[in-house]
Amino acid sequence: MKTMLIVLITLTILGVAAIIIILNLNGSEASGERSIDEIREASLETEEMTTDLENGGFVRISFRVVADSKDGLEELEKRDFQMKNVIIKQLAQMNEDQFKSDLSTLEETIKLKLNEFMEEGTITDVYTISKVLQ
């Protein structure tokens, strides 16, 4: 009886320790916290693009698009023509006032549209790294 009780207590302690270790290891990955090096390794900087806005103005802009993994980055590099198409179409629907005030909305829309194409990974962030409105 004493032996069985000792074995059950030992198994319980080992089980609790295993759960704590697993939650701590997966917790940092599940929370989405990545180092800046990991983000840079999984991101693609677009070339500077010049296109027109809805009301006739011109904009010169470039982005850094961040994928969730290296596989996602490789797929994004292959889909560069689709990425440029999405950016041009979104900018063509904006006027100068929208462009000045809704840059965050533009980034989110580009992210959502690109994720519609992605099969291997997903786009986690889109950052505007340069812009000039003419």
Automatic annotation (TrEMBL):
<keyword id="KW-0283">Flagellar rotation</keyword>
<keyword id="KW-0966">Cell projection</keyword>
<keyword id="KW-0812">Transmembrane</keyword>
<dbReference type="GO" id="GO:0005886">
    <property type="term" value="C:plasma membrane"/>
</dbReference>
<dbReference type="GO" id="GO:0006935">
    <property type="term" value="P:chemotaxis"/>
</dbReference>
<keyword id="KW-1003">Cell membrane</keyword>
<keyword id="KW-0472">Membrane</keyword>
<keyword id="KW-1133">Transmembrane helix</keyword>
<dbReference type="GO" id="GO:0009425">
    <property type="term" value="C:bacterial-type flagellum basal body"/>
</dbReference>
<keyword id="KW-0969">Cilium</keyword>
<keyword id="KW-0145">Chemotaxis</keyword>
<comment type="similarity">
    <text>Belongs to the FliL family.</text>
</comment>
<keyword id="KW-0282">Flagellum</keyword>
<comment type="function">
    <text>Controls the rotational direction of flagella during chemotaxis.</text>
</comment>
<dbReference type="InterPro" id="IPR005503">
    <property type="entry name" value="FliL"/>
</dbReference>
<dbReference type="GO" id="GO:0071973">
    <property type="term" value="P:bacterial-type flagellum-dependent cell motility"/>
</dbReference>
<dbReference type="Pfam" id="PF03748">
    <property type="entry name" value="FliL"/>
</dbReference>
<protein>
    <recommendedName>
        <fullName>Flagellar protein FliL</fullName>
    </recommendedName>
</protein>
